[in-house]
């Protein structure tokens, strides 16, 4: 989960799942293909069991998690997630605010550097 808020508040304004819904599958072939690709990652599926539906159109959405066990694994997805968090939830202009971000104890220096690069270059924040 991601906790969001402004300094001075006693608790976070939002607590949201750290996931995205970018994939929309419309055909049975795409669903079966995605299930084989994602075998073993059951928590990534909204629908844990897909029942084939004949002569009907249906939509299946797949969740994508940019963070796995506290470590960012998909930086493009993480950047899109942060964009959504900053603009949709906080409704903030990142150029006007400093950001405080937490990280896991075993985070690599490369991940820390890449997070700073995204925040400074993509969002033009004044400080981190």
TrEMBL record:
Q: Which PROSITE patterns match?
A: ACTINS_ACT_LIKE (PS01132)
Q: Which Pfam families match?
A: Actin
State the InterPro entries in the record.
Answer: Actin, Actin/actin-like_CS, ATPase_NBD
Listed SUPFAM superfamilies: Actin-like ATPase domain
Q: Which residues form the signal peptide?
A: none
Q: Would you tell me the protein name for this molecule?
A: ARP3B protein
Protein species of origin? Probosciger aterrimus
Gene encoding this chain?
A: Actr3b
């Amino acid at each position: 989960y991601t906790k969001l808020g402004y300094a001075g508040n006693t608790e976070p304004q939002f607590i949201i799942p750290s996931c995205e819904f970018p994939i929309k599958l419309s055909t049975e072939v795409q669903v079966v293909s995605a299930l084989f690709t994602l075998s073993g990652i059951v928590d990534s599926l909204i629908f844990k069991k897909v029942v084939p539906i004949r002569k009907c159109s249906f939509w299946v959405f797949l969740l994508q998690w940019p963070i796995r066990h506290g470590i960012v694994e998909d930086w493009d997805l993480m950047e899109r997630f942060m964009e959504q968090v900053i603009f949709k939830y906080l409704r903030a202009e990142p150029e006007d605010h400093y950001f405080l971000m937490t990280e896991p104890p075993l985070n690599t220096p490369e991940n820390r550097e890449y997070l700073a690069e995204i925040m400074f270059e993509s969002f033009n924040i004044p400080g981190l």
